[in-house]
Amino acid sequence: MVDLTSIYTAFFFKKRMQWMVAITFLICVTLYAILGLPNVHATSCLLLIPRGCTRYQLKEQLKNEGYIRNGAAFLWAVYLLKYHPKNTPGQYRLMGNITNWQLIRMLRGGMQHPVKLTFSTAANTTSLVDQLISRIGVNKEALCNLLHDAKKLSSYGFTPENVLTMFIPDTYEVYWTITAEQLLSKMHLAYQRFWNTTRMHKAKKIQLSPIDVSILASIVQAETNDPQEAAMIAGVYLNRLKRNMPLQSCPMLIYALREKQLLINRVLQQDTYIDSPYNSYRKKGLPPGPIGLPSVAMIDAVLNYVPHDYLFFSAKEDFSGLHYFARHYSAHLKNAYKYRKALDRLQIMH
Predict the structure, then answer these.
(1) What is the pTM of this model?
(2) Where does residue 306 rank: exposed (0-12), middle (13-18), buried (19+ CB within 10 A)?
(3) Do 149 and 137 contact (CB within 8 A), yes or no?
(4) Hey, which of 88, 134, 280, 297 would disulfide with 247, CB 3.0 to 4.6 Å?
(5) Do the strands 312-315 and 323-326 form a parallel or antiparallel pair, or are they unpaired?
(6) Checking phi first, is residue 213 left (phi over 0); if not, alpha (psi -120 to 50) or beta?
(7) What are the tens digits of pLDDT across the range 145-190?
């Protein structure tokens, strides 16, 4: 007699095994499609994950910027691998034709691609901060507070007035997630490398500290863009400093007026009475800080100044940016008169 129970049991066992195999196969195929198939486009690209980014926001960003082929597959992979982009903000380089699994492993590992941080000039500390935060994720308020923290800056040998001189214009590699304090530390290391034995020796020779050299370079930079004239103008200012004469720098006075939020196109006699440490018509010596971020070329122009006995210089009336140089005040007055007449013809007033 046939045992129907055994037959039915064997039949259902076989069917169940077939279903399990099919389901397992389907799961494997799905997981392979989600994790094992290339999902990033062939061209490598840079991805910036902002702070606080959610899984869905990251998926939308990757899809909208054309970095991945299948947004849904990426989102499934993120959930399956329990990846939270808010934990790993920063800039990453995505290699072409990698899988979601490879992409998420890289992101989860925080394997950031450095940001090239370049700056060459800045009118003041606020201007420099705006440049820096446009390229990296440092908090603006934290950086501004740090650059005005007298106690913290003193540990580096700077003050809030002269801290701009710590920043040597160049291209630096940093991670997007760098903090304000890490950035300041990196800039200070670059500053120490810049002020090598050769530059320190030249600064000592003209009896100026590195900070003073940079302050003077910022004044020279405001006077001219010509490297050869910069070395000549630096010589004029050094001659005045040696003789304890006021620098009488128009760019310094303009800086002082702008610090008081006064608009100015032309320096007039009454402007020279303003009360400010940057009024070089009333104050002798160098100001407490730079009037801008000096370039490396201008710093070197001061260190390699042209020795001469000129005490005055005045812009040429052709507006070429070049200058007349004079040893005596009477000759300087004649040169300055030419420039004033040119301004009058153009009706450039205060």
Answers:
(1) 0.84
(2) middle
(3) no
(4) 280
(5) antiparallel
(6) alpha
(7) 999 999 999 999 999 999 999 999 999 999 999 999 999 999 999 9
